[in-house]
Design a protein that fits this description.
The protein is mainly alpha-helical. The protein has nine helices and two strands; from the N terminus they run H-H-H-E-E-H-H-H-H-H-H. Strands 1-2 form a two-stranded antiparallel sheet. Helix 6 runs antiparallel to helix 7. The longest helix has 25 residues. The radius of gyration is 20 Å and the shape is elongated.
Length: 222
């Protein structure tokens, strides 16, 4: 039987449910939809120009990720992020970031190091101007590069989910500029270990970084 090579050439088309999911997910992450806020599915369907069926599919996916909650009398609302949950998020990040950094050190190449150097320079520039929104974006980019370098898509997906939860938490408990300055220094330690190809040191630096930030962020949210 002839191999169906045509199947590999089909373009990847984003479904309406995927579009609705990304629209809602970004709105939640950016704080446009606040914790406890009800999601009006009729209005969302009109705004996106689609039926409510893909909206419902997107909501089910968001609910499985813990980003929204279905309530009997309130409909679908954006989930809250509390201090107890954040402690669990940082515990998970400490374990995953350590593993990601170790694997990234083993796989580090010139491209990865160049990307991380660029992110660090841009973070220093944002520090000088006090642009915390840009610092937030660049911090996520730094950790995404590490996760991608681990070589495992599941680690990238877990990293993205944890970054999103922390991003939501920082809307109500923003980091100050001194804390962002500490983040840049801690990133430098991770990057130095990557340059040496030292997996254990990279893992230790990543875990120390996450532990340090957990102390700042959970305390800030009280």
């Amino acid at each position: 039987m002839a191999e169906k090579t045509w199947a590999t050439r089909l373009p990847k088309v984003q479904s309406k449910a995927d579009q609705a999911y990304e629209s809602l997910r970004n709105a939640i992450a950016d704080g446009h939809l606040s914790p406890g806020e009800r999601i009006n599915m009729d209005e969302l369907a009109r705004n996106l120009g689609i039926s409510k069926i893909p909206i419902r599919e997107a909501v089910k996916r968001l609910e499985s990720e813990g980003l929204v909650t279905s309530r009997v009398h309130s409909g679908v609302v954006v989930s809250h992020v509390d201090e107890k949950e954040m402690r669990g998020v940082f515990l998970a990040r400490e374990a995953i970031d350590g593993l990601v950094a170790r694997l990234a050190a083993e796989n580090a190449d010139d491209r990865l190091l160049s990307d991380l150097d660029r992110v660090q320079e841009e973070m220093r520039a944002a520090l000088r101007t006090g642009d915390t929104d840009e610092l937030q974006r660049l911090n996520s980019e730094f950790h995404r590069h590490l996760a991608e370098a681990s070589g495992y898509s599941i680690l990238s997906e877990l990293t993205e989910q944890l970054l999103l939860t922390i991003r939501r938490y920082r809307i109500t408990a923003p980091m100050d500029i001194d804390n962002w300055a500490a983040v840049v220094v801690e990133h430098d330690v991770i990057l130095d270990a990557l340059r040496r190809g030292d997996g254990p040191s990279a893992a230790a630096a990543a875990q120390a970084h996450t532990s340090s930030q957990a102390g700042h962020e959970v305390e800030a949210g009280k």
